[in-house]
């Protein structure tokens, strides 16, 4: 719907490049001005507050702690002796800890183990990072993947398991080559062919060594607890050797073979490309598209009809095509054998109008009788369906378009033309011969190269293929048997559908950067052996070196090695072939290394569902083929991240979110500048910058790594898409601050002389002590269960509720008066409970928020024999928390319903916390009377009351005059004494006015939603927001109505 809306309105509202540029400049200037004003205000505020601050420092030296130099990364442990700063600052918190963790070896599987090879009774956990492309920087999809992988790793490490999180980087064949080629052209005006293969590869290595470390630094920023000593790059010597060994073994077995077939060909790259590198552009009809190398746009989405004359008659057969230029390669016309219109023509031949060629009319059931004229031109060398027809009917395969996208020799006057120029020329020539029969709009999918934006041309090329039928069968069986588990399980249907219909896999690419195929074409010069065809697999040998290949070839052809001439294949392997071996080559395969024995197969693979077939299935293929084992036991497939409006992230839209910008914060001007360093043209740049100005008028606020990690996991509800709103991430930064302040409060209440002991119930705990311990037990149980089931939303929700609502909103408030003025016994018990719950809470959040939890935990008083870091501490186990008490939880929940009702009333009457009121609660049962009476101190504190009385079954006549009352449920009615506190008539008028305004807002939303085109024109995220807004307003109206009714009573 959203796309439809945009395309419909675009012709009216499209702005010129100049207007867009002006809009961006205006937004950028505004952002700069706001930033300048903010700094001036901060400076003025600091100057005004300076004397006061100096006074505070003299009075209380530990109030503001000097910050360390952020990012010094010496590897020394951060000094926490000066105490916690007053305010949470992610830059300060996240400095220095990672370098210390790394130096101490906490991330190594050998840490804390005397004999790493000995079995760990608690088990082991291995996960391999899906290797990011060396070309790039960390995008938000990587951030989500890294967060999930690292959270799992840290949780398993804290569970006491031997843990390995293995990092690495992919060479990214096409992507890297394209980047370096553009760089060469931009900076030196050279192509790779100008340099030659060896010099070009030298340039790629040089670029990789300059840029390759960036992504590793970003992984450190994200807190990834990987073992850096095991980091691998896909072109490292050990990887090259392993990939070569795999090809040689599979070629010798016949699993890899040579064949002449159709491939996805990018004329701009002069290479075959994989299906995942083909973008499928859907057209509804006639559309002009840009094509590299063409000054004018080219027309697509048109079905052209023309006639072939039937030899020896005046008859003709009309065919239809969306690619009229390919008729130069036609070798037949196909009709359905049961189509009565054409049965009399089967076996006859048509005459090609431009070349000396006869086209037989053949019967084939693949023809759709309802499409076009029901007769189909067959071009076996340029169409996948036609290729199959050509095989079935033994037709000639004539290539009419060459590697560069030019019309091939042998195509008459069209030879040498560019393919899309030939499209026009062929159409005109058909008109001249009176063979043109018209054209019409046609919905179609145009394949576009994602790297070069060229239109993909199916070309017949000799390539290397992997037989996939048997490997696909085994992969399906692995999932069906439960040996391999896909999470969420709705991906199983996709897995089966793809694998059941999978074709053999083309693994050769016409590139220079990558794993060069270790295959050699053999020419035998003994004068007896016939010359071979490069398409013929029998004339190829594979080996680790030319010397070994020569020996192999001599043995194969039974000749002396001196008669063997070899030509090394110039192609490289598809990137997915080498990355498909990732889980076992990083462990040392083909040798049976100790790492292979200890850490392979891994426990889980975490990746995006978009590469389930392209990468996950191929890892399963190659691992089973080469090691006889599955590469992992489980596959967790995360959702795709879109922007807040539900749009796919794209540089041309300006909505790509760099996680480092979210972590550190960035101004709009800086965001705009980042776009100028990419490859966008002037118009795309203007559109992208305007998009940034709309979405981030004030830039992106600094949120920190911990808040970003928590937000990404909170979004991960095992769905297909995540609409990421940066403001929600900022909300979790505020949550971090809440945790910070809770720990600061705890430290102040405990005092500097507090000695932490192993926690045990002493029997002197108050109801609220027992309640928070029960809530902590609940959190421990839910977090462990959520992590076990990959239900990260359950974990984040549990942690958020425990810290924010249970601990901060309720228990800390309840414990303040106890520690301030309770008995010594009550104070000691409350402190022990407080310490235990806060320390447990920090360990619970540690896998998700590693920096914040480490910083705060290091400031807490230590128990005896604790580990040096929370990173290697134990994760709380439910067996350590036998404190679940459903009765007390139900009692406090009942008391909280009273407190929330009173707070809502007070809010509607705009009473501040300083204005204390008397509160009367009338209950209908003795049990409820006992319950609320035991919790009077909690109700007094949280409901800002002078006094609280719990009464049994009384009405208005049983309480003082001037009370507003609200019935909470059949169990309880509350009365708030407002005599002499508010003017009832004035309050009623104010509330009525407020209600009227809210109802007007609701009416506006209802009016919007009732429009006929609302569903079609308004994007889904906006519709969802409107629904939520309407529900919130309705809740507010009901609250006001309750408050008014309470006053009238």
UniProtKB/TrEMBL annotation:
Residues 769-919 form the Methionyl/Valyl/Leucyl/Isoleucyl-tRNA synthetase anticodon-binding domain. It is found in: Cytoplasm; Mitochondrion. CDD domains: Anticodon_Ia_Val (cd07962), ValRS_core (cd00817). GO terms for biological process: valyl-tRNA aminoacylation. Residues 97-725 form the Aminoacyl-tRNA synthetase class Ia domain. One of its GO terms (molecular function) is aminoacyl-tRNA deacylase activity. One of its GO terms (cellular component) is mitochondrion. Its EC number is 6.1.1.9. Pfam families: Anticodon_1, tRNA-synt_1. Residues 981-1011 form a coiled coil. The keyword ATP-binding applies. PANTHER family: VALINE--TRNA LIGASE (PTHR11946:SF109), VALYL-TRNA SYNTHETASES (PTHR11946). This is Valine--tRNA ligase, mitochondrial.
């Amino acid at each position: 719907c959203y796309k439809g809306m945009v395309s419909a309105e675009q012709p009216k509202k499209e702005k010129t490049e100049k207007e867009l540029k002006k809009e961006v400049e205006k937004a950028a200037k505004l952002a700069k001005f706001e930033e300048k004003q903010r700094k001036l205000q901060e400076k003025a505020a600091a100057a005004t507050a300076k004397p006061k601050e100096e006074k505070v420092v003299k009075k209380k030296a530990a109030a503001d702690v000097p910050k360390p130099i952020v990012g010094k990364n010496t590897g020394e442990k951060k000094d926490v002796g000066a105490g916690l700063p007053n305010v949470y600052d992610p830059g300060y918190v996240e400095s220095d800890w990672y370098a210390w963790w790394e130096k101490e070896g906490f991330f190594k599987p050998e840490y804390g183990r005397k004999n790493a090879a000995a079995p760990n009774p608690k088990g082991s956990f291995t996960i391999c990072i899906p290797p990011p492309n060396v070309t790039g920087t960390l995008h938000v999809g990587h951030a989500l993947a890294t967060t999930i992988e690292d959270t799992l790793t840290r949780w398993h490490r804290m569970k006491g398991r031997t843990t390995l999180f293995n990092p690495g980087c992919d060479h990214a064949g096409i992507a890297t080559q394209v980047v370096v080629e553009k760089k060469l052209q931009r900076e030196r005006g050279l192509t790779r062919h100008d340099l030659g293969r060896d010099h070009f590869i030298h340039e790629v290595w040089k670029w990789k060594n300059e840029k390759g470390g960036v992504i590793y630094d970003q992984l450190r920023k994200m807190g990834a607890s990987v073992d850096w000593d095991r980091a691998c790059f896909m072109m490292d010597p050990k990887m090259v050797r392993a990939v070569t060994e795999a090809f040689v073994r599979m070629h010798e077995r016949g699993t890899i073979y040579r064949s002449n077939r159709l491939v996805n060909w990018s004329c701009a790259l002069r290479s075959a490309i994989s299906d995942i590198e083909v973008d499928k552009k859907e057209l509804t009809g006639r559309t002009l598209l840009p094509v590299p190398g063409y000054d004018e746009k080219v027309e697509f989405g048109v079905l052209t009809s023309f006639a072939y004359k039937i030899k020896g008659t005046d008859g003709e057969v009309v065919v239809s095509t969306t690619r009229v230029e390919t008729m130069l390669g036609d070798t037949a016309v196909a009709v359905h054998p049961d189509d009565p219109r054409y049965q009399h023509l089967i076996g006859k031949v048509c005459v090609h109008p431009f070349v000396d060629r006869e086209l037989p009319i053949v019967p084939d059931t693949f023809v759709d009788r309802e499409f076009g004229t029901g007769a189909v031109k067959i071009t076996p060398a340029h169409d996948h369906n036609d290729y199959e027809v050509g095989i079935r009917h033994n037709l000639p395969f004539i290539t009419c378009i060459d590697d560069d996208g030019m019309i091939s020799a042998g195509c008459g006057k069209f030879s040498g033309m560019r393919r899309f120029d030939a499209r026009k020329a062929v159409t005109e020539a058909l008109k001249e011969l009176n063979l043109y029969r018209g054209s019409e709009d046609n919905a179609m999918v145009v394949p576009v190269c994602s790297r070069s934006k060229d239109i993909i041309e199916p070309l017949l090329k000799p390539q290397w293929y992997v037989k996939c039928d048997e490997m696909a069968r085994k992969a399906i069986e692995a999932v069906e048997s439960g040996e391999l588990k896909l999470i969420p399980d709705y991906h199983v249907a996709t897995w089966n559908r793809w694998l059941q219909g999978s074709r053999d896999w083309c693994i050769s690419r016409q590139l220079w950067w990558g794993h060069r195929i270790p295959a050699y074409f053999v020419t035998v010069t003994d004068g007896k052996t016939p010359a071979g065809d490069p398409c013929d697999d029998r004339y190829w040998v594979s080996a680790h070196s030319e010397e070994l290949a020569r020996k192999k070839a001599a043995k194969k052809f039974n000749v002396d090695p001196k008669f063997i001439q070899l030509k090394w294949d110039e192609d490289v392997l598809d990137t997915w072939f080498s990355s498909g071996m990732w889980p076992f080559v990083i462990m040392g395969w083909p040798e049976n290394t100790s790492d292979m024995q200890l850490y392979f197969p891994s426990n889980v693979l975490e990746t995006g569902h978009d590469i389930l077939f392209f990468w996950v299935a191929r890892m399963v293929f190659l691992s089973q083929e080469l090691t006889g084992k599955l590469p992992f036991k489980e596959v967790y497939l995360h959702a795709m991240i879109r922007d807040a409006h539900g749009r796919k992230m794209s540089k041309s839209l300006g909505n790509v979110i760099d996680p480092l910008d979210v972590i550190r914060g960035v101004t709009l001007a800086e965001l705009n500048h980042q776009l100028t360093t990419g490859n966008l043209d002037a118009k795309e740049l203007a559109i992208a910058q305007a998009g940034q100005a709309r979405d981030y008028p004030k830039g992106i606020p600094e949120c920190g790594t911990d808040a970003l990690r928590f937000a990404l996991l909170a979004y991960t509800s095992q769905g297909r898409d995540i609409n990421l709103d940066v403001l929600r991430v900022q909300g979790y930064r505020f949550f971090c601050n809440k945790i910070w302040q809770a720990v600061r409060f705890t430290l102040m209440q405990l005092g500097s002389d507090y000695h932490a002991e192993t926690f045990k119930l002493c029997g002197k705990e108050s109801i609220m002590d027992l309640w928070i311990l029960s809530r902590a037990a609940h959190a421990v149980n839910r977090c462990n269960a959520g992590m076990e089931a990959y239900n990260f939303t359950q974990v984040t929700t549990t942690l958020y509720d425990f810290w924010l609502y249970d601990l901060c909103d309720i228990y800390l408030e309840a414990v303040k008066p106890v520690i301030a003025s309770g008995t010594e016994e009550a104070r000691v018990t409350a402190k022990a409970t407080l310490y235990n719950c806060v320390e447990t809470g920090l360990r619970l959040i540690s896998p998700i928020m590693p920096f914040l939890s480490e910083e705060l935990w290091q400031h807490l008083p230590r128990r005896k024999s604790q580990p040096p870091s929370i990173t290697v501490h134990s994760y709380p186990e439910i067996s350590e928390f036998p404190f679940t008490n459903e009765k007390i939880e139900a009692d406090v929940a009942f008391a909280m319903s009273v407190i929330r009702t009173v707070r809502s009333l007070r809010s509607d009457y705009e009473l501040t916390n300083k204005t204390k009121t008397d509160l009367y609660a009338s209950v209908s049962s003795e049990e409820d009377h006992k319950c609320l009476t035991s919790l009077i101190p909690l109700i007094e504190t949280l409901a800002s009351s002078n006094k609280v009385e719990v009464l049994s079954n009384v009405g208005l006549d049983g309480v003082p005059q001037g009370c507003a009352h609200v019935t909470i449920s059949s169990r309880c009615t509350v009365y708030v004494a407002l005599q002499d506190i508010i003017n009832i008539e004035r309050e009623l008028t104010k509330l009525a006015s407020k209600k009227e305004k809210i109802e007007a807002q609701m009416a506006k939303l209802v009016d919007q939603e009732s429009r006929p085109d609302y569903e079609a024109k308004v994007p889904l995220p906006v519709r969802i927001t409107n629904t939520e807004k309407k529900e919130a307003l309705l809740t507010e109206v009901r609250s006001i109505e309750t408050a008014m009714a309470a006053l009238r009573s």
